[in-house]
Amino acid sequence: MQKQLILFFILKVGILSSLFCQVKYEQERTNMVKSQIEARGINDENTLNAMKAVERHLFVPATYKSNAYKDRPLPIGYGQTISQPYIVAYMTEMLNVREGDTILEIGTGSGYQAAVLAEFVSQVYTIEIVDELGLAAKERLKSLKYNNVDIKIADGYYGWDEHAPFDGIVVTAASEYIPPPLISQLKDGGRMIIPVGSLFNVQTLMLITKTGDDIKTTNLMYVRFVPFTRK
Ligand code: SAH
User: Fold this and answer.
1) What's the CATH code of the domain at 115?
2) pTM for this model (two decimals)
3) Whose CB among 4, 106, 127, 146 lies 3.0–4.6 Å from 141's, allowing a Cys bridge?
């Protein structure tokens, strides 16, 4: 009887502490959106709702969980990082995507940016070059029921031809130039966001818009991303 009581007590404490964590993370997420994202001028409803919904602490290694909602990028292993929340929100807003859209992401990493987009677009295709990261992201997104994200482990330089053209393309690693296959896989009227520049220099986040054969580039801001690597 006493044993049963102790077990019951342990179970109760377990449930209560996990509930407490849920509430704590939700509060941190609400604060993150308010103070880091809305305060810096992001006002697209879809983007804000997605940033409020995606549980960022489930996308970072266990040792960084308590830093998951801080205003900074975090390591995710293999020399890679999950971007600062504001940068994810900014890139999402600048893509200007809508409910029915199909998006290609290059650089799955943890799967966080893909999950943010998958909250409101119809389909996300994402490519990761590091096998271990791609496989872990696949498992994570499956267990979180993001059924509208497909991950391929490959060199994203070539895009994903079978599913092209895309309404939007987001590249989350810095390339020295814009990979031509990505431009050709962009829909007429589509937008691409990509950091361009070398690892040792300041990189520029660029917006590329395609209208017929006309390709327009706009410099958005200076950024620092991990490098776009090749297989
Ligand atoms: N979007 C990610 C963060 C990405 S960090 C997130 O939300 O967590 C950049 C990622 O791009 C790294 O995981 C890196 O391995 C990957 N990467 C670099 N070059 C690549 C390439 N040529 N093709 C696909 N992925 C690439």
Assistant:
1) 3.40.50.150
2) 0.94
3) 146
